Amino acid sequence: MADSPSRIVRPLSPHLQIYRPLPTMVMSIVHRATGIALYFGTVLLIWWLLAAASTPSAYGLFTSIAGSWIGRLVLFGYTWALIHHALGGIRHLIWDTIRGFGAQERVLLAKLTLVGSVTLTIIVWVIGLALKS
């Protein structure tokens, strides 16, 4: 036992301090975050449906909270999360067809997911606000 070799000192596993954030890595993290946000945002959808199905005062409470600036900000974020997560799913669907794996294609798809989600969210809200007026 006295002659056994000493422990080999190995480096720790690399983590976020080592890696440079790449667009595909960031979009993967954001895709997961939007999935979590949609999970909790579904509570708002259920609240809206229950309020609409119950009394006018319950629906009035929901609309007053959702119509406030903080409520609209949350709904805007929920809309963006929904669209971004859907576009991320389309990106993964493209990968499932064994396409888009080139270095430039991966970065292009990641950037298109981000730009597309922001653009479509703004379009949805502009149309929604125009129809409300």
TrEMBL record:
What's an example GO BP annotation here?
A: tricarboxylic acid cycle
Where primarily located? membrane
Q: Where are the transmembrane segments?
A: 29-49, 69-87, 108-131
How this chain sits in the membrane, per its record, is: Multi-pass membrane protein
PROSITE patterns (UniProt xref): SDH_CYT_1 (PS01000)
Gene3D superfamilies noted in UniProt:
Fumarate reductase/succinate dehydrogenase, transmembrane subunit
Q: Which GO terms describe its molecular function?
A: electron transfer activity; metal ion binding
Naming one, the record's GO cellular component terms include:
membrane
Q: Which domain of life is it from?
A: Bacteria
**Cofactor(s) essential for the protein:** heme
State the free-text cofactor note.
The heme is bound between the two transmembrane subunits.
- Pfam families recorded: Sdh_cyt
Q: Does the keyword ATP-binding apply?
A: no
Enumerate the residues binding heme.
Answer: H85
Q: Where in the cell is it found?
A: Membrane
**Keywords for this entry?**
Heme, Iron, Membrane, Metal-binding, Transmembrane, Transmembrane helix
Q: Can the keyword Disulfide bond be found in this entry's annotation?
A: no
Q: Report the sequence similarity comment from the record.
A: Belongs to the cytochrome b560 family.
Q: What does this protein do?
A: Membrane-anchoring subunit of succinate dehydrogenase (SDH).
Relate the assembly described in the record: Part of an enzyme complex containing four subunits: a flavoprotein, an iron-sulfur protein, plus two membrane-anchoring proteins, SdhC and SdhD. The complex can form homotrimers.
What's the protein name?
Succinate dehydrogenase cytochrome b556 subunit
Tell me the organism's taxonomic lineage.
Bacteria, Pseudomonadati, Pseudomonadota, Alphaproteobacteria, Hyphomicrobiales
